[in-house]
Design brief:
The complex is a heterodimer of chains A (about 260) and B (about 350). Helices cover about 35% and strands about 25% of the residues of chain A. Chain A has about 260 residues and is α/β, with parallel strands linked by helices. The two termini of chain A are about 30 Å apart. In chain B, helix 4 runs antiparallel to helix 11 (about 230-260), helix 6 (about 95-120) runs antiparallel to helix 11 (about 230-260) and helix 10 (about 210-225) packs antiparallel against helix 11 (about 230-260). The chains are: A alpha/beta (about 260), B mainly alpha (about 350). The interface of A and B includes residues 93, 100, 104 and 126 of A.
């Protein structure tokens, strides 16, 4: 591991009463890599994401972005510093149009939110940018539909478009393809592949589908009961006994299914 | 329409989007613009001025409630600050333009600071907490205004003289224009009308700016807005200050019209409820709702009683039993209540929302 990692967590911990949801997780993420985070339901994957992006405040430990401690910062300040997050449960602006949803993200990136007297419709640059993002996720034909009325798969795509619009340094995808129909999945996977191929972005991916993980990830980390139990090359991690047991719930010997 | 024509700029690209709505708004605009000539007499002009002021008051409230999703009960407090700003400047100093200007500026600064303070203390946390805080602060302010006899005139309020040009005795021309003598009263009306028009167009611009879209995003999903990099508390605070400033100016205009400021005309909770009703009747989340809500409500408030009295008289002279009593002029509040219930029942999205739905 060479230069400063884009993102690092040090002993990151959160306790809810007596339950330790994320327990002293230390991990660094380098630019140009895609790390898959796997683990059974309730292992603390989404909570770990929430701690990194600032939706939850950690009980102890640190989050470093570009080597700088951001543990005390709000979610919005972390976003401004290059953290980007797509949510597991679709989390949009339901009564605004698809276009307006994306444009809000584009506008945040452009720092235009505090313009009070300019007409939004005069910001052609923002609108064109939003259109090109909608094109990328194949939603351009639905740009004037209300976000809340979209089918589930399209809402997931819109969620991804909002993340792309932020142009972050760290992309955090929380099960981006969950609930999508089979023919929609490749669009999203291609986009993630393209982000990784740029070489300067750090991608974190929570994903249950092992074939997706195998094809995309450079590295897998495994969370179990809030602890980091395995970390390494995909093939090695998947084959390791601890993963077979923790993640697949199988005894170490019965490793036929993956 | 082309994005660069003047109407597009004036309306900030926010068209009525319904032919009926457009026509209604046009009628309201024409009636208000030519009120002194179309409806001579002091009572109609009084109603027209009140409509202008309430359009601004209701629009500024909708900026909070309908656009940002914040419930505030302190709106009459800011309205009152504007009123007392004028009253104190005119009564304690002199009925001059300078005193008026100073009074308005002091009132605006005070209102915005107070809004900022309330916002910073309570807008970070849950919306209900903000509502409770505003209720408490507004009650405290109302008590303060009625107790500080020396400054505010207490429960009696203050009657005062305003700059000479705006007094009824002032004549702009020696001859009447279109049969109407242009006196200070009419000049005051036009000061109110054009200020209201300007403030309304300004508000329309703000809600259609990039900033306005963030407010809507916060109303829809504040958690997500924060995750997109918008500091929600900052946006809510700015909206709160803007709204307070507009309400203050509405209070200033009303104080100039009435030449009297007292607790009942500015700070009373009844006005707060009227504002809420106007927002709901007109339609939340659209500034055009404020225009229709204010116009309909104030017309009903002022003319329902008269109309009912006449109707009751007609029924009585026709010899119909029971009904004349039901429509007696004293029952007007009952009918206003029924009208309100019906309008909420049939137009849950307000009149503007309903008209726009019909078009689809």
């Amino acid at each position: 591991m060479s230069a400063t990692p884009t993102l690092e967590t040090r002993d990151l911990t959160i306790r809810f009463g007596g339950h330790v949801a994320v327990n002293a997780v230390s991990c660094a993420f380098q630019p140009g890599t895609l790390t898959a985070i796997v683990g059974p339901n309730g292992a603390g994957k989404t909570t770990y994401f929430n701690l990194i992006s600032g939706q939850l405040k950690s009980t102890s430990g640190q989050v470093l972005l570009h080597g700088e401690d951001v543990t005390g910062l709000t979610a919005s300040s972390r976003t401004k510093r290059g953290m980007g997050r797509a949510f597991q449960l679709t989390n949009l602006f339901p009564n605004l149009t698809v276009m307006e949803n994306v444009r809000l993200a584009v506008q945040s990136r452009a720092g235009a939110g505090l313009q009070l007297l300019q007409l939004w419709s005069h910001r052609r640059d923002l609108i064109e940018k939003a259109d090109s993002l909608l094109e990328q996720v194949r939603l351009l034909d639905k740009r004037n539909a209300t976000a809340g009325a979209l089918p589930h798969g399209d809402q997931r795509k819109l969620e991804v478009a909002l993340l792309l619009a932020l142009e972050p340094d760290v992309f955090m995808f929380d099960e981006p393809t969950a609930g999508m129909s089979v023919d929609e999945v490749p669009t999203i996977l291609d986009l993630i592949q393209a982000i990784k191929a740029r070489g300067d972005k750090t991608v974190l991916l929570v994903e249950h589908k092992m074939d997706v993980v195998r094809s995309l990830a450079d590295r897998i980390i495994v969370l179990h009961n809030g602890q980091l139990v395995a970390d390494g090359e995909p093939a090695a991690v998947i084959a390791s006994p601890v993963v077979q047991q923790a993640y697949l719930g199988l005894p170490p010997e019965g490793s036929a299914a993956a | 329409m082309l994005p660069n024509n003047p109407i597009h700029s004036l309306l900030s690209g926010d068209y009525p989007r319904s032919r009926v709505l457009g026509a209604l708004l046009f009628v309201v605009l024409i009636c208000l613009a030519f009120a002194p000539f179309l409806f001579p007499g002091s009572q109609p002009l009084n109603v027209a001025a009140k409509i202008c002021v309430f359009i601004i008051l209701v629009a500024s409230y909708d900026l909070l409630l309908g656009y940002t999703g914040i419930v505030s009960f302190a709106h009459t407090m800011f309205y009152g600050i504007g009123g007392y700003g004028v009253a104190i400047a005119m009564y304690n100093f002199s009925p001059s333009w300078t005193a008026l200007g100073v009074g308005v500026i002091v009132a605006l600064v005070l209102a915005i600071l107070l809004a900022l303070l309330i916002g910073l203390f309570s807008l970070r946390v849950r919306a209900i907490f903000f509502a409770m805080i505003t209720l408490a602060v507004a009650s405290a302010f109302a008590i303060l205004a009625s107790q500080l006899n020396e400054i505010t005139g207490g429960e009696d309020g203050r009657s005062y003289r305003i700059p000479e040009m705006l007094r009824p005795a002032f004549r702009l021309f020696d001859e009447p224009v279109m049969g109407v003598m242009i006196n200070g009263r009419i000049l005051t009306y036009y000061l109110i009308f054009f200020s209201a028009l300007l403030l309304f167009l300004l508000a329309l611009r703000v809600v259609n700016s990039p900033f306005g879209r963030v407010l809507q995003a916060i109303r829809e999903n504040d958690f997500r807005a924060e995750a997109l990099g918008y500091r929600v508390v900052v946006y809510r605070s700015i909206a709160n200050c803007l709204s307070a400033g507009m309400a203050t100016l509405a209070g200033v205009l009303m104080a100039l019209w009435l030449r009297y400021t007292g607790p009942d005309t500015t700070l009373s909770f009844a006005i707060m409820i009227d504002i809420l009703l106007m927002v709901v009747i007109g339609g939340m989340g659209t500034l055009y709702g404020a225009v229709l809500g204010a116009a309909i409500f104030i017309l009903a408030q002022n003319y329902l009683q008269v109309l009912m009295g006449q109707f009751s008289g007609m029924l009585e002279s026709a010899g119909i039993p029971l009904l004349p009593g039901l429509f007696h002029a004293d029952r007007w509040l009952l009918w206003l209540g029924i009208l309100f219930v019906l309008s909420v029942y049939f137009f849950p999205v307000g009149i503007v929302g309903k008209l726009r739905q019909m078009r689809k």
